Fold this protein.
Amino acid sequence: GKLGGISQGAQGRAAAMETLRLDGDIRNWVLIPITVAMFLVGVLRHNFAKLLRSDAKVDLKALREAQAVIRAERIRNNAGYMQGAGFRQRRFFFCDKTTGVFSQKTKKLNPQQQMMSDPSMMTDMLKKNLNMIVPQMLTAAWVNFFFTGFVVGKVPFPLTQRFRGMLQRGIELQSLDVTYISSLSWYFLNFFGLRGVFSLCLGQNELDDAQAMQQQMAMGMDTGRAFVAVKENLDMMQHDFMLHVAEQRAERLLRRLVSGDSTDQARAFATAE
């Protein structure tokens, strides 16, 4: 009886240790300040980006060529969801030897020639990188110096151990449940999670770092080499339609429904091998 009581008491203490009760001061002086600071820094970056934004002339031909490369890559990555005829038409449009988009001579200069002919391009890139990198470095250093080592919250659903490095940066404690969030990880979650808030509060979002990087990569693309590489990939690609099974199941399901079967019976017949 004593051993059973001791074991039950140990289990109760272990269960109590697994659930941490966070101090309210951590919420008031760590969680809320980090969130407010990230939002205010985002507002400053938004206004600073408006001041730095210049009415640069857009090379429509270069932009069209870069978008053609991106579109062809999307077609290649999602070709399994297209019918064979649709994929062949798109490949003919891009890769035909006489009229194909990638068979035409590119009209865009390579990035080095562009920078030599238009020095303002380099200036604009430096301005964007300055507005994107410097504030985040300063904010990360501020959070790491003043708030490192705090546990600020808990995720309301279970997670695997692979999330420990993402949610518990700055806390080297393997016995801590993986669902708890450190202050440094809360900073990174705000960095990636406030984009929607900025779009709602600020209107036109000037702070989409991922979109800005994609635009810089597209404008700095060497379309001559990209045309050759993408055309070769499309020409050598063996198309395989992945939705033929779905079409067969849909056909069998509709036939059973038309014949008067219930939804469950028709679904069971359609998914049966």
